[in-house]
Amino acid sequence: MSRNHYGNLAVQLNQERKQQRVSEPKQTSKVSVRYSIPLEEKLLYLLSVIVIVCISGFILSRYALISQYNYEIENTKQAMIQMQEQNSSLKLKVDELSKRERILDIAQRELGMTMKDSTVRVLSH
Predict the structure, then answer these.
(1) Which residues contact 9 (CB under 8 A, 6 or more apart)?
(2) What is the 3-state secondary structure (H, E, C) of the chain?
(3) What is the largest CA-CA distance in the chain?
(4) Contact status, residue 82 vs residue 88, Cβ threshold 8 Å
(5) Spatial contact of 12 and 3, defined as CB atoms under 8 Å apart
(6) pTM of the full predicted structure?
């Protein structure tokens, strides 16, 4: 088309634009870009997460077991301290009850025994 064909420059520009629009190929195909992780990589990540969870669970269970053992040790130490105190008090009671004067007093007053000095033998620890 020439400029002289229509005689109007504005009409000519509109015609050229229409021709350009028609001549341009329309791209109707959609380009789909997939931004996804491949299946193997997904499985690798999943396996990694499972392994990390298993290791964490194992470590936490070991810490729980160690904590339980520590509680048992502390309870045993407390029981041992109480038994030592009880043993000390019982030892004092045994010492008090096994005094020679007390045994002699009980023998003379309650049982009516008499002591002959020639037959008495004193044994000591």
Answers:
(1) 3
(2) CCHHHHCCHHHHHHHHHHHHHHHCCCCCCCCCCCCCCCHHHHHHHHHHHHHHHHHHHHHHHHHHHHHHHHHHHHHHHHHHHHHHHHHHHHHHHHHHHCCHHHHHHHHHHCCCCCCCCCCCCCCCC
(3) 166
(4) no
(5) yes
(6) 0.50
Q: What is the pLDDT along the chain (125 residues), one digit of tens a residue?
A: 455 555 677 777 777 777 777 666 666 788 888 788 889 999 999 999 999 999 999 999 999 999 999 999 999 999 999 999 999 999 999 999 999 899 989 998 999 888 777 777 777 76
- Cα-Cα-Cα-Cα torsion 18, 19, 24, 26, nearest 10 degrees, comes to 50
Q: How many residues appear in the chain?
A: 125
Cα distance between residue 24 and residue 51, in whole Å: 56
- Six-digit token string for 5: 């064909």
Residue 113 · residue 107 · CB < 8 Å: yes
